[in-house]
Amino acid sequence: MTVSTQWKRNDQPIYLDYQATTPMDPRVLDAMMPYFTTKFGNPASRSHSYGWEAEEAVETARAQVARIIGADEKEIVFTSGATESNNLAIKGVAQFYKDRRNHIVTLVTEHKCVLDTCRHLEQEGFEVTYLPVEKSGLVDLEKLRAAVTDKTVLVSVMAVNNEIGVIQPLKEIGAICREKGAFFHTDCAQAVGKIKLDVEDMNIDLMSISGHKIYGPKGIGALYVRRRPRVRLVAMINGGGQERGFRSGTLPTPLCVGLGEACAIAMKEMDGEAERLHGLRDRFLGKLRERLPEIYVNGDLEQRIPGNLNISFAFVEGESLIMGIKSLSVSSGSACTSASLEPSYVLRALGVEEEMAHTSLRIGFGRFTTEQEIDRAVDDIARHVTKLREMSPLWEMHLEGVDIKSIEWAAH
Amino acid sequence: MAYSDKVVDHYENPRNVGSLDKNAEDVGTGLVGAPACGDVMKLQIKVGVDGVIEDAKFKTFGCGSAIASSSLVTEWVKGKTVDEAETIKNTEIAKHLALPPVKIHCSVLAEDAIKAAIADYRAKAAKKQDEQPKAAE
Fold first, then answer.
1. Is the pTM of this model over 0.90?
2. Between the CA of residue A167 and those of A196, A340, B27, B79, what are the distances in Å?
3. Which of A18, A67, A386, B57 is most buried by its number of CB atoms within 10 A?
4. Is-catalytic flag, B63?
5. Strand pairing report for A308-313 and A328-329
6. Which residues have C-beta within 8 Å of that of residue A274, sequence separation ≥ 6?
7. Nearest CA in chain B to A387
């Protein structure tokens, strides 16, 4: 690793939550810096060199974003992030075509910003089908095909799940959408720079992209909007008509430059990085399995990005485990730290039972993760799981051969 | 979420982890909660002939606050009579550990665990009394 990682210090926890966000690559920051101070022009200013300079930088960035997904730069709209892109794609298409088609198909395991947008549209009178997923976390293509009707305007399926990292069959979904005349939107926040994406090959009509998931800055994202055949949208933010009217507002030049640079680096290094992360993940899982029985990976392990694991540590509650492994920054598969105390809806959708969903951790590896960090993480997790199992009445019953499901537990 | 120092202390140095013989006549066992809800507590008390709790052990599957609540009550019940232990309130546990509102249910569960252990002990004692006259016949 040649780039500096000054944020890593010995007294800092090891960062293993790359699906939540990523540290910015120092090369990205270097590219951005001049556009905060010396090259500060408004890219929409046509009357002076400050504006031209900023516009050139933004257009270069747009081309870099387009290139990584096989699109034309004219098809890229800058937004504030994947949440805005998902909102714009789904609401924009639904509103524009509502007189002809009013049905949307999506998955139960989508990100909250897709599900919540769909709920919002349901209140406005649209119909939404939330398709289940298989135990692997993947959609059954026959179920998808059956759900898409001549009333379906949009199919929105994420490329890579943020909790379990599984990769949906985009090309096959794209083919079904094309055949049925529905637009295909895919939330690629977790996929860009991690798997090969090609909007032509995969028949993708709209794609959401995030900056901070790919070692770029927070506060920037993009939406790919197909031009041939043209996809039309109702804009959500009105104003000066920037971004071809799809998204008004002065473009944040440094953030655009950062997203572009992040895409350029990812494109160049994707293959090598994927291979390295595969190695790290196999090392992590192999060593962990040597030390701990009764651990289960949630979601398909093959159809998955290499930088993600979601593991159930049976008989150990996830939040208590996170409390123990203080030197590691991971997240609980269960949303136990929130007020809801409900286990993850994604894991529940896979058919993971509630008691197992409560024992899950999401572990994310990325560009700056090292072998030494993996080894330390394995050791820390194994020690704490062992300690907590010794403290767990369920582990005790398991060792005594008691079937935990046979007990009538009082619900509370 | 920030845990109080007392929760962290009980989590890192849990008191009285372990098990007593659940079949022993002088041992009461309480098993409360549910795996699907994310917490299960097992609390056991060993009661002397004078009605005083001589020993207490726990095992808990649950968050740090659940572990701390059960660890704390094992300390509190030891040396108390069964009747005294029965008066421990979840509010006292929550207050002592400075539990946030979303974790109050952990203290409720700990109170339930004591009550369940005491009920189990009393049921055993009652059964023993019932059996004694029969044995004398």
1. yes
2. 11, 28, 53, 58
3. A18
4. no
5. unpaired
6. A194, A195, A305, A306
7. B12
